[in-house]
Amino acid sequence: MNQYHLFEVLGHGKDSTVYKGRKKQTICYCAIKRVPKTAKARVLQEVRAMTALQHNNVLRFHSWCETRNHLWLVLEYCVGGDLLTLLKEEPVLSEDSVRGFGQDLALALQHAHANGLVYCDLKPSSILLDEKGSLKLGGFGLSQKIATVQPLTLQQAKRASPAYMAPELFQSGPQSTASDLWALGCILYECAAGQPPFSASSPTQLVQDIMAADPAPVADVSAAFEDLITRLLDKNPATRIGWEDACLGW
C-alpha cells in the first residue's frame, strides 16, 4: 500500500474498514478497503465478481494487494457515501427519488445476473452514491455463480442480513435472481416507508413475519409503486416480478 495515502475512515463492515485514499503523486481519489487475511476467500470472490462486471451502476474495482496481516482493495470513491447513512439522515425519501434508486439497482442486478452472478446479500450499506446521486452496487463478497448456486452455509448466513432475505432462504432454498429481487423490494420499501417491511426485534419473530405476514402499506405513494412493491415481495419466488417489470416498474 506504499503507493497510496490513507485519510479518514469512510465506514466499517463486519470485519472491514474503508478509508478515503489517494494515489501518490496524483489527484486520483479512491476508496481503500482493509480486510483481515482470514477473509481471503470472500475477498477473492469479490475481486472476481467486480472484475467481471463493467456497468455504470456497479462500483468500479481498481486493484488489490496483500500485506502481512491484511488484504486491501482499491475501489471507486463515491462522495455520497452509502445508502444506509443516507437513510439514517433522512429516513423517508420521495417517491421520485426511490424510483431513480430502484431503476439504478435493478439495472445493476440485471447486469450481474446476465453475467452469471447472483448478488446474494443486497442491503443499504452495500449501495453507494456518486456525486450525481446515481447508485453503485458494491460488496460482492457473498455473490455466487448462478450455475453453481447453493443454499447459504452457516457462515454465510451469519454474515447475511436477515431483514432483506427472501422467505425461501429460511427453508434451505438456494439464492437466486428471485431472492435478489425480494431484497430489492425490501430496500425500495424502506426508502419510502422509513423502515424495512419486516423489522421485528426478535430474530424468531422476524423470520416468522417474513415467512407469513404482509408488510404494512406504504403511506403517500402511487398505486403503481404499491403494486411494484407487492410484486417484488411476493412470497412465492416462482411468481415474483420479472426483470423487465422491475427495471421499468413505474
Automatic annotation (TrEMBL):
Pfam families: Pkinase. Residues 4-250 form the Protein kinase domain. This is G11143 protein. InterPro entries: Kinase-like_dom_sf, Prot_kinase_dom, RUK.
